[in-house]
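User: Need the bound-state model for iron/sulfur cluster:
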Amino acid sequence: MLKHIITTKCNKNCSYCITKNVKNKDFNFDNDCDKVMPLYHKLSKEHKQIVITGGEPTEHNNWYAFLTYASMAFKEVCITTQNESVLSNSIVPLAAKSIVFSIHNQDFKKFKINIDIPVYAAILAEQYIPGMEKVLKKNGFSGLTINEEQRNGKSFTKKINPLKGFSIKSNSSTTQISLPFPPTTSDSRR
Ligand code: SF4
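Assistant: Bound-state model below.
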């Protein structure tokens, strides 16, 4: 899965974030935008999917332009975000095929999805609450991605019963999962 970290900036400061250690200069869109499309087109010869990510990608002034450009080159474009406003932004589905929404430590029950593309919730393994997948599905999410805290060496071993029409994915080698396309986002804690 190809990922484009368009910014490492983020309005949050999670202790477990590893993106803040990524040495990545923000892409200067104003100066370099003519390089984006050729690059995306070149990469799209080998990759069908791309994830626009961060940091918090919407912290980049040109985040939507990246999405649009990506959609012109790649078959499937996903954006990972913890910015709730993306979930009701009607132009996002014009460019992205799916959203991975990082819930982090927020109350997962409060998010109701009403956008025309699949939205996958993402949590850290320690935030998993048995049964939360049923609530998320009821609230319109298409799936749940469970990311292990890889630095503490613990594996996510809980068994989650499959839910029809709802994908569950974990980056653990010990948990059984299925899914069509929610991209794996483990290395950005998303
Ligand atoms: S984990 Fe995500 S939300 Fe938290 S600081 Fe890192 S990029 Fe921001």
